[in-house]
Amino acid sequence: ATENIGDTLVKNLDFLIIGAQKCATTTLFEHLRSHPDIAMPLEKEVPFFTGEDTSATHWDSFATANFNDRDRAKLWGKASPQYMNDPNIAQRIHALMPQVKLVAILRDPLERTRSHFQMGQRRATEDREFCSAIEPLLAPAAIENNRRLPAPEHKAGYESEADFYISWSEYGRILEGYYEIFDPSQILVLYTEDLQSAPEATLDKLLAFIGLPAGYRPETLGRVIHKGGSGNRIPHGVRQWLKERKALYWLWQQVPERRKGRIRFQYEQWNTVSRTQNETVPSATALALRQHYANDLQTLLTLPVDLPPWIDRYLPVSH
Description:
This protein is an alpha/beta fold. It contains 13 helices and 9 strands.
C-alpha cells in the first residue's frame, strides 16, 4: 500500500507480526525474511508504533532507514512482539495503516510466562524464585495496574519486565482490542505449538493470508530460532565490562546501524543457554495461573480464532 504525502510516495506495511512476546515471533521473522517476494528490516525488533510520533512523515523516515526503495514491488512486513503489550498500539496502527494485515502467534500462556521469567534471569534483571515473582502479580490491584503500564524501552540496557510476566499472556484481553478496531479478515491468529508440530501447514496458512502462494520452504523451517533459557555463555557482567572499553566502543560505533541489530541478534542466539529445562512450576502456583488464564481464554474464544492446542489444560474439552 502506498500514499502520497507532498512529493513523497510512501509505501506502508503489507503485514505486521504483532506478537506475542516469547511465542516464536523470531521464528516467523526468520522464515519470512528470506522469501524472494518479501522485504523486512534486517533486525526484527525495530519498533515504530511504540513511539510517540507515529505520523506518516515519521513513517517515511523510518521506512527509508529500514527498507530498500528498490523492494517496492515486494510485500513489506515487520515483526514487533511489543505490539501486544501496549493497549494504545492497535489504534495507532489503524490510524496510519488501516489496511495492514496483522499476524498474532500465541503460546500456552503459562509457558509464555515461564519463558518471560527465564529471560529476566538471563538478562540479570530477575533474581527471585518463580513463585516469589509470580504471586504478587496475581493480586487484583497488581493485575489491573500492570495492564496499563508502558513497556520498557531498554534504551540504557535491559530493564526489568517483571510486572508483565502475567499481563502479556492475557491474549484474549489484548486481541479483543485489535478485533474492535480492525476487520476480522485482517487478523490471523497462529499458535506456537502448531508451528512446531506442523511447520509446513502453518507457514502455508500464513503465506495465503498475506497473499502469497503456498509451498515456500525456507532453510529455517522446522527449527526453533530463538530458544529460551535462563543462562548465558558469557556472563552479563563481561558484556558490561566490554561496553566500558573506549577502543572497543569506538569500533562498535563504526558498524552501520542496520548491521548492529543483526549482530546483537546473532550474539543473543549463541549466548543463550538453558539451565532450567527440567524445572517444574510448583502445583499451587501453576493452578493459580491456570485459573487466571482460563478466564482470559474465555474472552479469546469469543473472537474468530481457531481453538488453541492447549485449551484442555485450562478449560473442559467440550469448549
